[in-house]
Design goal:
Number of strands: 5
GO molecular function: hydrolase activity; metal ion binding; nuclease activity
Protein name: Putative nuclease HARBI1
Cofactor: a divalent metal cation
Subcellular location: Cytoplasm; Nucleus
Pfam family, one: DDE_Tnp_4
Helix content: 40-55%
Order of helices and strands: HHHHHHHHEEEHHEEHHH
Largest sheet: 5 strands, mixed
Oligomer: single chain
Strand content: 5-15%
Distance between the termini: 122 Å
Length: about 350
């Protein structure tokens, strides 16, 4: 029989005492302001200056801002800085979580939220042939080695990923035996990425990626007045210049040298992109998510280049050394000979004008 002076049953009170004894208190750690650091620390950690990080925060805030602060949700600044830290370092998610006092799942959600928001700005920051006028792009390329009418340098680069499960795993193994995504990019002379195609497995050849890209369709349709520069792995077309396989001494050798110096811009762009965002050296992500991260890094690279952020130190990039898989088309050979003759006439004109001044 229960005591009439007690409001509740003794058994219920005892159960509450036991529950309190085994209850795990919820620990809400204090998260510091990610930008409350020295400028050098911010640049090293996020690859952007303080003003650059604030610009990205303001750009993405309408897309990633939490509607409430329930359960002490991450602020926009914290979400952006977590993603930038992952892009810059490429380290494990739990390592970033330990540094930011967060669990791994929260870090993963923050990164995914940021790169999906960045993808919405692809048409704003990645524009072909450039943000500049086409004539300015051609003049800047011509100033490098005297190669006329160039509006872009194109190439592909392999981004290593972890082996995906399923029957299509073999499609991602490239010629070096590494699982990767083959990414096609085009740049201008100012290292701005003007086109990116990130959806093909590593076993696909560069020439096929270009043939089936939207950019090739636009060139075949005649929408652009200019030419692209590629390596010998591509087929030479009227709008696509590649080097001579076995150049003869004289004009052909000078043509190859001018093309190599001008096309080096895309190799330098790849170097800056991978040094700025170390995650691109090895992505531990599924292929679809890896492609989204690659596009997000390309957009961030353009933002950093436009804002003149600090350029990372780039080491020597290995040559791709691809063998051509297509024979020269007649229209491509004729266009290449025409470019060589134009370059020769330009050099003769400059020589004659300088001789006349003397």
């Amino acid at each position: 029989m229960s005591c009439p002076f007690l409001r509740e049953q003794p058994v219920a009170e005892g159960a509450r005492i036991i529950r309190r004894a085994f209850q795990i208190n919820r620990v809400l750690r204090d998260r510091q302001d990610p930008l409350a650091q020295r400028e050098s620390v911010i640049v090293e950690r996020y690859r952007f200056s303080r003003e650059g990080v604030i610009y990205i925060i303001n750009l993405l805030e309408p897309h990633i801002k939490c509607s409430t602060r329930r359960s002490r949700a991450l602020t926009t600044a914290q979400t952006v800085c977590i993603a930038l830290r992952f892009f810059a370092s490429g380290t494990f998610l739990y390592t970033i979580g330990d540094a930011e006092n967060l669990v791994k799942s929260a870090v993963c959600r923050a990164i995914r939220k940021v790169y999906l928001a960045l993808k919405q700005f692809l048409g704003v920051f990645v524009v072909f042939p450039s943000h500049l006028r086409p004539q300015v792009v051609k003049q800047n390329f011509f100033a490098i080695a005297g190669f006329p009418n160039v509006i872009g340098a194109i190439d592909c680069t392999h981004i290593p990923i972890k082996a995906p499960p399923g029957p299509n795993e073999g499609d991602f193994v490239n010629r070096k035996g590494v699982h990767s995504v083959n990414v096609q990019m085009v740049c201008d002379s100012m290292f701005h990425i003007t086109n990116v195609e990130a959806k093909w497995p590593g076993s696909v050849h560069d020439s096929r990626i270009f043939r089936e890209s939207h950019l090739c369709t636009l060139f075949e349709r005649g929408d652009f007045d200019g030419i692209l520069l590629g390596d010998r792995g591509y087929a030479c077309r009227q709008y696509f210049m590649t080097p001579f396989p076995d150049p003869n001494p004289g004009p052909q050798t000078r043509y190859n040298a001018a093309l190599a110096r001008t096309r080096a811009r895309i190799e330098m762009t790849f170097g800056q992109l991978k040094e700025r965002f170390q995650c691109l050296k090895s992505l531990r992500a599924a292929p679809d998510r890896a492609c989204d991260i690659i596009v997000a890094c390309a957009i961030l690279h353009n933002i950093a280049t436009i804002r003149k952020e600090r350029i990372p130190v780039v080491g020597v990039q290995p040559d791709d050394d691809l063998q051509p898989v297509h024979l020269d088309q007649p229209s491509g050979r004729a266009a290449r000979d025409r470019i060589r003759s134009i370059k020769q006439r330009t050099q003769d004109t400059l020589y004659n004008s300088s001789f006349a001044r003397i």
